[in-house]
Design goal:
There is one protein chain. The protein has four helices and three strands. The protein is of the alpha+beta class. The chain has a three-stranded antiparallel β-sheet. Strand 2 and strand 3 (about 90) form a beta hairpin. Helix 1 (about 1-10) packs antiparallel against helix 2. The longest helix is centred in the N-terminal third of the chain and has 10 residues, at about 1-10. The chain starts with a helix and ends with a strand. The model has no long low-confidence stretch (mean pLDDT about 85).
């Protein structure tokens, strides 16, 4: 959901794509003082592959027991298709 919400800000012209991607990748790593958020030769990759035109329907995919969210019934653009963590596939969509 975070990535979809960030991409919504990009589509509304409120945030540049490069800044949005930095905010969810390299910037948190810099704040924590860890080497992550970048692809480098010789290091295990951590990344996600997304379909920016795909739609995430939160009405169908809501996993939380809590229902107090402004996005509970939203449809957001940008669906994650694949997640790789430390070089290993950790999630793959249908």
């Amino acid at each position: 959901m975070l990535l979809s919400l960030v991409l919504q800000l990009v589509s509304e012209g409120k945030l540049e794509l490069s800044r949005a991607l930095d905010a969810v990748t390299a910037a948190p790593a810099r704040c924590l003082g860890i080497q992550a958020g970048q692809l480098e030769t010789g290091r295990p990759a951590s990344l996600c592959v997304l379909d920016p035109a795909g739609v995430k329907d939160l009405r169908e995919d809501w996993l939380s027991a809590g229902n107090n969210s402004p996005w509970r019934h939203a449809q957001l653009k940008g669906s994650v298709k694949l997640t790789v963590c430390q070089g290993k596939v950790s999630w793959l969509s249908d």
